[in-house]
Amino acid sequence: MGIKTEKWLTKVVIVGLLGLVSIIAYQSFTKEIIETQEPIIVATDMKNLEDHDEDKPLQIIAREEVNSIKGINEFIGAVGNSEVIARIGLSRSDTEELYGRYRKPLGNREEVEFINTVKGPLFKINLNTLEVTPVKTNEVSFDPSEMSPILSPDGRKLMHIPYMMDKSLEISKPAIVYDLHNQSIINIDANIDPDMKPENVFYRGWSEDSRYIVGLGIEDGGQSIITLEVENNQFHKVKINSDIFRVNTLGHIFTEDGKEIFFVGWKNEVSGIYKLEVDSENIELVMALPDEGDGNFVRNYPYRVIDGGNRIVFLGNIRGENGLYIYHDDGKTFTKIADGEGSLISFWVSPDNKKIVYATYFRDEKSRRFWKIYAAKIVEDRLEDRILVSEDVAEYPGMPIISWSGDSRSIVMYEPQIFTLDSRVFVENGIIRRIRFR
C-alpha cells in the first residue's frame, strides 16, 4: 500500500512511496451511502432571505448570476459574499488576434509575455456595483505566469509564491503576504530558519483562522513541518524524525489554528493522516488506511478535518474504489459519499463543517466532459438533503471554483467557459454565481 503522489508541482522533491505495507491493529470496513432523494431547487430573489434553520431540509432560496464582466480569465476567490478577486484580461477575439502577431513557435519569453497579457492583472470586483479595482503593489507584481496567489479563508490576505514553471525564466522575487485591507506586504522568506533556503520551503496554504501559513521544509534529506505566524512574521520549524516518520511531499497539510497540524504520511509501515502537536512536537495517528488492498491512498488534494480528526473528508481510493470519502474514527469506517469519473471530484466544506458542495464531471453522448455540482448536509458519516446546484458546467479541463461565506449560508461560484488555442487553455467567459442556502 502507498500514498499516491500526483505531480502537480514540479519543483517539489518527489519521494518514492512504492512497496509500503500498512499494518493496522484494528478492524475497519467500508460502506457506501445510496442516495434516493430527488434534488430540490427553490430559487427566489436574493433580497428575500429566510431565517437560518438547521432542522429544515437544505434548499436554495436565492440565486444571482454575474456574467457581464468580460475577460475574467482566472478566479482567485471571494472576499465575503459581495466581492471577488480575479484576473481580467483579453477576450477570446483579442487573444486570437494577439496570438496571430507572434512568430511561431513561441520562445519561452514570448510564451510568458503572451500568457501574462491574455490573463491580465488582478482586480477586486464588487458583485453588487460591478466596480473593478486593481490589486497591485509597487514592491511585487502578481504575474499570471507564476503560481496563482492563495486567498486566506477570511478573504483579507493573499499569499503569493513567485515560482514560474519554466526554471530558466525564474525570477528573484520573495514569497509574500499581501494584505488587501491596508495594502501592506510581509516578506515571508525573510524570517525563515537560517539553515533553510527559501527554495527548500514549500508553502501549502493557510490555517482555517487565517493567522498561519503552513508548509513543508526539506533540508539535507530530512523533513520539517513549518508554520509562519503572519501577524508577527514568526517562523517555526518542527523537524520530523525520518527514522520513524515520513511526510508525503505532495500531500496536503491542514490546520485550524497553527497548533495542531495534520499531514499525509506514514510511520514505519502504517500510512494515513497524522497529527502534529506543535508545542509538544508529539505526532499521533488519526486516520490509518486499511491494511488490506493494494491501492489505498489519500489523493494530493486538500482534505477537511472535522472535530479534531474524529471525522475527515478526503478524496482517495479505498480497497480499489475511487471517490469522495468521510472517515469516522468512532467506528474506523470509510464511507464513500460521491463517485466521480476518473475520481476528479472537487469539494468545499462550509466553515461550520455542516455542509459540503462538490463537483463531479461526466461525459455526454458526444464524449464532451462537463461538471455537475451538488450541495448537501454533512451528518455524522453521511450526506443528507443532497441537491443539484448546477449542471453542464464548464467543459473539462475548465473547473468550477467555490468560496463559502463566513456564516456558512452562501457560496460564490465561478464557472469558466473555456476555449483552446494550440493546446493552451484560456477562459472565454467567466460566470460568477451567488447562491444562498437555507
Automatic annotation (TrEMBL):
Name of this chain's protein: Uncharacterized protein
InterPro entries noted in UniProt: 6-blade_b-propeller_TolB-like (IPR011042)
Domain of life assignment: Bacteria
